[in-house]
Inverse folding.
């Protein structure tokens, strides 16, 4: 599936050009939703709301970036709460607060992974504004970070970050379904930061573009929790398994660590079965942290988890935290007005 998407969307040509009328309809609907949200902009929440998202369909590295933002905010004394739609999960009731008892089947893989990696509250609700209000009512934190919500305009926001996979860029530059764009590139004029995962994109003109690198950080056995040095992959034959938006990026990371990789790619948010993880040898099976939260009960003793950490320049941290403080000052200034409207 990934190879097909790369061919149809991420080349220079537009083989699906006959679907251009559908792309136009998609764009009109998206712009209508955005304009409606703009008219309702006075419905601001009482704490800063940060939205991490992308203009292109597919994986770009939003969740590692979200985890990095949580770390930055924690270091400054903030109490962040992550909001998520919970794609791929199903719960009998929302909002859902993720803890150790909540499975990926209930909350989705990314919320469970983010809770495990950051330790901060993660609230899952398809209606993210409802989830935000619920989190604030329970005083779970004093700043909200929405993972993958750039087009979820029902949620008021103060800061927006758009993430791109540098290896894919904007593809053929067309809107869905002809190309990968959820919104026109002109939408970037309204976001605060553009983050490019894996390199700089000269085609994106934005005054606050920063390059992010996903750095391998840990290699742990999925069943026992044993940690081994990353150098353990050097020269080792492994089965790489990935059910993420861009599996090729994960396989390339394994290769860069010296592993000899046999690749097995699945679609994003794939619901793994035991058969998906079977190997005909005792070679290690290495997967992403996002996939691992769904595979603990079905994987064998040879399953390992390669975790990554988002690395960004210090200049980004300074600019991001400065923007957060600006939002706090603005919200304090308008506090009487918000109380009156409420």
């Amino acid at each position: 599936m990934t190879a097909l998407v790369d061919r149809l969307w991420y080349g220079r040509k537009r083989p699906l050009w006959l679907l251009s009328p559908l792309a136009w309809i998609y764009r009109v609907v998206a712009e209508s939703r955005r304009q409606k949200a703009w008219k309702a902009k006075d419905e601001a929440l009482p704490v800063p709301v940060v939205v991490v998202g992308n203009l292109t369909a597919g994986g770009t590295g939003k969740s590692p970036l979200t985890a990095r933002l949580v770390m930055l905010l924690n270091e400054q004394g903030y109490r962040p709460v992550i909001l998520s739609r919970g794609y791929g999960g199903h719960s009998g009731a929302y909002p859902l607060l993720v803890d150790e008892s909540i499975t990926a089947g209930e909350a989705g893989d990314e919320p469970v992974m983010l809770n495990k990696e950051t330790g901060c509250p993660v609230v899952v609700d398809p209606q993210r504004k409802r989830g935000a209000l619920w989190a604030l009512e329970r005083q779970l934190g004093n700043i909200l970070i929405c993972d993958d919500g750039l087009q979820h305009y029902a949620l008021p926001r103060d800061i927006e970050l758009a993430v791109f996979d540098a290896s894919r860029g904007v593809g053929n530059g067309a809107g869905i379904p002809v190309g990968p764009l959820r919104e026109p590139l002109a939408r970037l004029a309204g976001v605060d930061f553009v983050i490019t995962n894996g390199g700089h994109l000269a085609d994106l003109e934005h005054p606050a573009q920063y390059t992010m690198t996903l750095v391998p950080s840990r290699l742990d056995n999925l069943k026992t929790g044993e940690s081994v040095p990353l150098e353990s992959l050097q020269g080792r034959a492994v089965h790489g398994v990935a059910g993420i938006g861009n599996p090729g990026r994960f396989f390339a990371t394994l290769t860069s660590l010296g592993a000899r990789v046999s690749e097995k790619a699945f679609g994003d948010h794939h619901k793994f079965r035991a058969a998906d993880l079977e190997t005909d040898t005792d070679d290690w099976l290495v997967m992403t942290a996002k996939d691992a939260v769904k595979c603990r009960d079905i994987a064998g003793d040879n399953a390992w988890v390669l975790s990554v950490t988002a690395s960004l320049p210090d200049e980004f941290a300074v600019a991001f935290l400065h923007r957060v403080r600006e939002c706090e000052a603005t919200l304090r200034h308008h506090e009487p007005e918000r109380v009156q409207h409420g």
Observations:
- The longest strand covers residues 209-221.
